[in-house]
């Protein structure tokens, strides 16, 4: 294993390379472009032997990914923001055809107006698409999750595509210490893909054919595959720990053992939130944090168990559903139904607006206050 400094785009590319991906359809979009450029460089050098397939749009990227995966190849790609929106139609095709494509999304706020900084409205637009969705806090996690995702997605009990989210610029262009596993160990963990059903010109077949009354059956199968995925992801995490000694879960609990209240976070802002939790702990406040790492399938039972002993919860959304509020908030409330604790909503960092440790401390203190008042609060980060 080699430890070096990698930005998020490079870490994602290394994850794909170590997974021995065979086809990378691609189209550049900020801030994902360097991920694809890394594969182009490796291809020109001859250090990666796969097929590098430039196409004319992100819609074509996913179309090519679907075709290559249906033919039995291990397929990897990346996108961001408006590019993900252009792919949207084909995302449902990939999951409906049960193809284990793995993709990186480098989150960026959606226009108009235009921003280059991240929030999570782009990735959360895929909530109901049938894709498995991971959120990463660090670049090490990005690299590791790419490899893990192929193991999960290619399992015959799952056979679904996965998207791994990192925050644009915050992760994609920030270098962090990352351990690159040896190819030998990755090969031991992730064998070559063996697809039972593949397109073959010598044995023609039709995939994704028209159905009418049977459509419900196919959607139900995707639902059941997501339920299976919760167990398979846990099994993959355990195997990863045994080989690589880095531990992952559906959730990450931080300072939760004796916490009276907790924040719920996703993505890289978690690092700032953890600093706020530590600062308040030193002042005697019993606050903790739970980071949701696997968003789809939603780890409802695990989340309820992790929060069963707290007296108040605050959900931190880096997104906005106009006409309602935060997207994560109602899902957490549903998971905690019956616990009779106040669940407050906090909307931050839209368009990538920086949030400070002090602002997270204010959020924590507001959550702690609801223990006594029993009244949920709503906090919108100052837009000025």
Describe the structure.
The chain starts with a strand and ends with a strand. It is globular, with a radius of gyration of 21 Å. Helix 1 packs across helix 2 and helix 6 (139-153) crosses helix 8 (215-244). Helix content is 40%, strand content 18%. The mean pLDDT is 96. The protein has helices at residues 8-18, 33-45, 58-70, 81-96, 121-124, 139-153, 183-189, 215-244, 270-282, 300-306, 328-335, 357-373; strands spanning 2-6, 23-26, 51-54, 76-79, 102-107, 132-135, 162-167, 176-180, 251-254, 261-265, 287-292, 294-296, 312-317, 343-347, 378-380. With 384 residues, it is of the alpha/beta class. The protein folds into two domains: 2-244, Thiamin diphosphate (ThDP)-binding fold, Pyr/PP domains (Rossmann fold, 3-Layer(aba) Sandwich); 251-380, Rossmann fold.
Write the layout of secondary structure elements.
Blueprint: E1 2-6, H1 8-18, E2 23-26, H2 33-45, E3 51-54, H3 58-70, E4 76-79, H4 81-96, E5 102-107, H5 121-124, E6 132-135, H6 139-153, E7 162-167, E8 176-180, H7 183-189, H8 215-244, E9 251-254, E10 261-265, H9 270-282, E11 287-292, E12 294-296, H10 300-306, E13 312-317, H11 328-335, E14 343-347, H12 357-373, E15 378-380
Parallel strand pairs: 2-3, 4-5, 5-7, 6-7, 10-11, 10-13, 13-14, 14-15
Antiparallel strand pairs: 1-8, 6-12, 9-11
């Amino acid at each position: 294993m080699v430890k070096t400094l990698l930005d998020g785009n490079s870490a994602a590319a290394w994850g794909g390379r170590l997974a021995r991906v065979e086809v990378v359809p691609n189209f550049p979009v900020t801030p994902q472009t360097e991920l694809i450029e890394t594969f182009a460089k490796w291809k020109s050098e001859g250090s990666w032997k796969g097929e590098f397939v430039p196409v004319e749009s992100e819609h074509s990227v996913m179309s090519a990914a679907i075709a290559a995966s249906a033919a039995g190849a291990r397929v990897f790609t990346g996108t961001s923001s408006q590019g993900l929106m252009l792919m949207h139609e084909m995302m449902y095709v990939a999951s409906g055809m049960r193809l284990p494509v793995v993709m990186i999304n480098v989150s960026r706020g959606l226009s108009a107006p235009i921003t280059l900084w991240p929030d999570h409205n782009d990735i959360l637009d895929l909530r109901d698409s049938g894709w498995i969705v991971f959120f990463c806090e660090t670049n090490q996690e990005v690299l590791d999750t790419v490899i893990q995702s192929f193991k999960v997605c290619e399992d015959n009990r799952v056979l679904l595509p996965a998207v791994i989210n990192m925050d644009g610029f915050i992760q994609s262009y920030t270098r962090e210490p990352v351990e690159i596993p040896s190819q030998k160990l990755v090969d031991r963990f992730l064998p070559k893909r063996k697809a039972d059903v593949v397109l073959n010109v010598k044995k023609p077949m039709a995939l994704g054919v028209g159905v009418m009354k049977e459509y419900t059956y196919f959607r139900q199968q995707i639902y059941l595959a997501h339920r299976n995925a919760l167990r398979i992801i846990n099994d993959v995490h355990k195997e990863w720990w045994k080989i690589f000694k880095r531990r992952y879960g559906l959730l990450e609990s931080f300072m939760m053992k004796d916490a009276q209240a907790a924040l719920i976070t996703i993505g890289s802002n978690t690092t700032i939130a953890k600093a706020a939790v530590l600062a308040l702990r030193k002042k005697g406040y019993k606050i903790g944090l739970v980071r949701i790492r696997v968003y789809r399938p939603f780890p409802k039972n695990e989340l309820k168990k992790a929060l069963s002993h707290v007296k108040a919860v605050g959900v931190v959304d880096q997104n906005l559903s106009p006409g309602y509020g935060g997207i994560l908030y109602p899902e957490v409330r549903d998971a905690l139904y019956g616990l009779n604790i106040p669940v407050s909503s906090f909307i931050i960092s839209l368009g990538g607006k920086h949030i400070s440790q002090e602002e997270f401390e204010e959020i924590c203190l507001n959550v702690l206050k609801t223990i006594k008042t029993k009244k949920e609060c709503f906090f919108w980060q100052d837009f000025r």
